[in-house]
Amino acid sequence: MPSYTAPVKDIQFILHDLLGVSTSDIQGYDELEADFTAAVLEEAGKVASGVIAPINASGDQEGCTFENGLVTTPKGFKQAFEVMKEGGWTGLDCDPEYGGQNMPYVLGTAVGEIFSGANQAFTMYQGLTHGAYSAIHAHGTDAQKAKFLPKMVSCEWTGTMNLTESHCGTDLGLMRTKADPQSDGSYKITGEKIFISAGDHDLSDNTIHLVLAKIAGGPEGIKGVSLFIVPKYIVNDDGTLGAANGVSVGSIEEKMGIHANATCVMVYNDSVGYLLGEEHKGMRAMFTMMNEARIGVGMQGLAQAEAAYQNAVIYAKDRLQGRDVTGVKNPDGPADPIIVHPDVRRNLMDQKSFVEGGRAFLLWSASLIDQVHRAGDKDADGLVSLMTPVVKGFLTDKGFDMTVQAQQVFGGHGYIEEHGMSQFVRDARITQIYEGANGVQALDLVGRKLALDGGKHVMAFFEIVKTFIKENEADGALKADFLEPLKQASKDLQAAAMYFMQNGMANPNHALAGSNDFMHLFGHTCLGLMWARMAKAANAALATGASDTAFYETKLTTGRYYMARHLPATGMHLARIQSGSDTVMALDAEAF
Amino acid sequence: MPSYTAPVKDIQFILHDLLGVSTSDIQGYDELEADFTAAVLEEAGKVASGVIAPINASGDQEGCTFENGLVTTPKGFKQAFEVMKEGGWTGLDCDPEYGGQNMPYVLGTAVGEIFSGANQAFTMYQGLTHGAYSAIHAHGTDAQKAKFLPKMVSCEWTGTMNLTESHCGTDLGLMRTKADPQSDGSYKITGEKIFISAGDHDLSDNTIHLVLAKIAGGPEGIKGVSLFIVPKYIVNDDGTLGAANGVSVGSIEEKMGIHANATCVMVYNDSVGYLLGEEHKGMRAMFTMMNEARIGVGMQGLAQAEAAYQNAVIYAKDRLQGRDVTGVKNPDGPADPIIVHPDVRRNLMDQKSFVEGGRAFLLWSASLIDQVHRAGDKDADGLVSLMTPVVKGFLTDKGFDMTVQAQQVFGGHGYIEEHGMSQFVRDARITQIYEGANGVQALDLVGRKLALDGGKHVMAFFEIVKTFIKENEADGALKADFLEPLKQASKDLQAAAMYFMQNGMANPNHALAGSNDFMHLFGHTCLGLMWARMAKAANAALATGASDTAFYETKLTTGRYYMARHLPATGMHLARIQSGSDTVMALDAEAF
């Protein structure tokens, strides 16, 4: 069975050496002293390793069951969910007015990675509740907030997001679910939604569904979509639960992974719904929480890669096969551990350097979200909007690839379910798909975010890179190994953006055909920037006499690996982009 | 449910326009007239689409069952296997002396792709039998051949390969299975083997296991390994079946995919075994069939990519989401089919150009095998030995990636099992692992094949590329789109080989740390060569007034796509290789 250990030291390095959170003047960051965050992360790590990781493989094996209209989660999930609730983990970064602990999002994200890494399917129950909480918090009336949020913060009630219908996923304007206005100001919701994660289960007393639907007589298409709060059981004014609300589960899906999280067909039959936000502004209400939700999915992709990596390392140190070609390393054993073999190391270094760089990118982005929400920083808002599709698309595409590489370390033992490596791959796979498939992320990046506010935000990103390089170019310890590759990556990224500007006007397909490559090119540049910064931080720690020199030296080596072995991908992505859309679009549909 | 259509036209193009099989003087190739191969492929296609593809998803869903020591295959497998036997498909390229049809391996491989694409788990039963047939055919005594081969050619008896033990997969020298010599010249085999595909099932009357074991008193390690024929039931001298032979199934594995093929723990308890080939030369006996087996696995990876691609195309033409940014394409519908979107096309073109180029590479390699076996061509033997790890490693790594991309076209619908896209991914995954994990292929390529016979074979490969470029450089229709990118790829490949030569002597890790990248670099160069040749063939067909101009024009566009969008990966792989092993090997094992 796979194990999980929270990467506390690596997270601490990012929070403190890299981001210097406790010295930031963002409201609430002063609390984030190293001792405090370490205590939180270690406590989360205990719950992760001791409570929720142990039910990860069994939950995958058993899956959810659907009987008599009700979904039952796998063995141990109810008890583990109680532990999460009792520990206050469900409301860590929520509003204290509703029982939350008001921790910054950056810490919530770090903790979220730990729980997701231990058990993605399990952690989704609270993750989706958090998403619904955020939507109600941002758009609800005071009465709605008072009624729903306290029990959602505590996860006594859980939440869901209902967007997709069988004929429309990305193109939500096609949806058919209807909302009929009632005389009391409520609506009757009727329709069928699919792919509803955590749509029903036995972990909470009530489920608060957020449902997109069209109010009769409203505008056509996406402009006529509104968002509704539809509880499974009506909530009385005194907070007690009333009658069932005509919400039922049609079926649950057989899926490739996340078996322990019920993916439901939800049927709404004249269910009472309460408008959340404005009429016909449902998409806007969804979008305000989209950055956060997408960063959360990027976090999941990274978390699976970390978990898979940990187990690949354990196996590579333990499994004895063959001998080190440069000299026997385990003379008393029948063979050397496979970690001596260069291609196994190449594989592990790919994973390690991605995971650590990706985590820095994730937490930097999360800190920008704090800057937006806690300091009203508009520039940070623009920057994080630009980077969100990259966090989501790049971290999940590469995160998935890394779970596959981790599985490969096990050879045949990785293909059988016994070691749990297959589950990491199967669970990670969904992160590339939900919350906007990665092709949609790439489209959002290139078709929308790049040109937003006159291209101001991408220019701001380039400025950050340029400034960092300039400020450090006299630093011989950074120049060749870090600054030069970063400069090249940034140059490739700029050339790609320039290509889009020069050619996208004449034919938008010239830009869109390169969108996926651009997302990856951007991602590598971001991780290159993170590694250059981390190298600087590691050098600084070494220079000031940090006791744990091995840790910082390892950071430097891992960073050098990323720069030398991951960053050359930017040239390939640029070449693909610059080949334009001619060969991409040339064929008639019939020729495929 | 997914569908499957044999790509007969694409295969015909490769066999005839590209390889010109019927004009070759290889023994038996004169029979391969276009009409004949078309008839064979179409007939295979009918069986594939009508008989074995329909039990692919259901076989995955149901899996094999293990009860009372016996394995039962999923519903419909027995009947379908009868169809394969009755059609003579199991002995297509086998020796006519034992009931085979003596077709060249190139045609057997083309047909194999069709069956594998329709149902990999099912086709493995005969594939493994073919592998065991080949080993007995190459190394058996006349008596052994007469006794076992006729019923294996007809698949009345099936075969298996028993190499792995739980503590040793790649490093077979560690094996513990023992062979005790008996006075009658036979051996008693005792031990436990794992991961035995098709180890037991209900499709045949007897199973002929080929088992690696150590004869007591023999040399230590890999040099003391011998190969044995161990039938499930003893075969009497009159060919009838005798007593059970102490061969039992310990358990069957829960796996990520190929659920319909039983992966068995096989237990041999004083089982009667007959030495195949020489004592202590078991590995040599295995290796003579290794090229063929590995090319067969490369074929499987490609086949899954083709099958997944076909279904992605159907979905992309059918699924309506969003509008073409350059103008509405389906004005009467609520949205345009997603194939209009550039990133969906980018995805499909990645798949299409890989699959068609990969198939050419596969069939070229298969034709080289014919040249070895039917014309005793030593140069072809060297070349195909060199390319075999590339066929296996590159076609399965990329084949898997392409199944993931095909699944992505379906969005959320790809993640649920209903559409079958998850199965393509899960089934393709094993091809990267079995028959030598791809890291072992890369090691074989760089550590062994590259320098074999003084590097003669890789030089021969470069010479083929160089000659082709030289012979065609006056051809304006090829130069910019095909020859230039091929030249660059070949240059990158040569630079990588040169790097290994210059640095690998001082430290073999400098070469081995780049082995995986070299395998991919080599693969891209091979597919680039194939596409350049196919472009030439397509131009020739167009010039001579072929009626189906759309087909040949599509080939040219698809080839241009490969050259423009896949080949730039060679620069990335070269950069990774040239970064050497320093960052790869720097960390102590404890630092991971």
List the helices and strands and how they pair.
Two copies of one chain form a homodimer.
Chain A: H1 8-18, H2 34-52, H3 56-62, E1 65-67, E2 70-72, H4 77-86, H5 105-118, H6 120-139, H7 142-153, E3 157-162, E4 178-181, E5 187-197, E6 206-215, E7 225-231, E8 233-235, E9 241-244, E10 247-252, E11 263-276, H8 282-288, H9 290-318, H10 342-375, H11 378-409, H12 412-415, H13 421-431, H14 438-449, H15 456-472, H16 476-504, H17 508-512, H18 515-543, H19 549-566, H20 569-578, H21 582-585
Parallel strand pairs in A: 3-6, 4-6
Antiparallel strand pairs in A: 1-2, 4-5, 5-11, 6-7, 7-11, 8-9, 10-11
Helix pairs in contact in A: 1-2, 1-10, 2-5, 5-6, 5-9, 5-10, 6-7, 9-10, 9-11, 9-13, 10-11, 10-18, 10-19, 11-13, 11-14, 11-15, 11-18, 14-18, 15-16, 16-18, 16-19, 16-20, 18-19, 18-20
